[in-house]
Description:
Blueprint: H1 25-31, E1 38-45, E2 48-59, E3 75-80, E4 90-94, H2 102-109, H3 112-125, H4 136-157, H5 169-184
Antiparallel strand pairs: 1-2, 2-3, 3-4
Helix pairs in contact: 4-5
Amino acid sequence: MKKAGEYGRPRTRFVTNSGVQPWTIEELARQLPEEEYRRVSWREGSRGLQSSTFAAIRIQPAEGHVVRKAPGAPEWLLCEWPAGEASPTKYYLSSLPSDTPLKRLVTLAQLRWRVEIDYQEMKGEVGLDHFEGRTWRGFHHHATLCMVAHGFRALRRALFPPEQDAVDAAQVRRRLQHLLLRRIGHCPLCLRHVGARAPPRGPSRI
């Protein structure tokens, strides 16, 4: 009797011992029982309480199936099916623990708008897009300084009562850069020695 795969072209896709084939996300979302979808609210918006219908299921991603890669580690698949739609419209993958409640998954998934706003603020207020270096490590140094400066400004704005004097974003970033350079004593890229009273000059390159 001929063994599978003994003759002919070699297999190009991963095959499990059970013969189970991967499903598309949309097919899986449609197969979920109706009672699995629950209405969840996550925040108060300008148009009232934001809510939609969600379902969550543990899956193993199989994006490497076509190149014979085994399924990945179990993850959460969060499906959003708004009222009036013929099928789910949005999907989220999450590596949160298996005991994470649905409410927590939805709340974190809907924070994307906050990340986008913070990203725009870091570009406009603390110079995230001012980096002029050429290395990935240098950009990470610059981005870290920008994130710390942005967080510092957010904490200052949250004070009550508000401070009388405005905080200059560029000055905060430069001071942080100077403090870090003084602590390590030299630039990690060009190895130039940094004096205790000599702040770095020019655009951010570390």
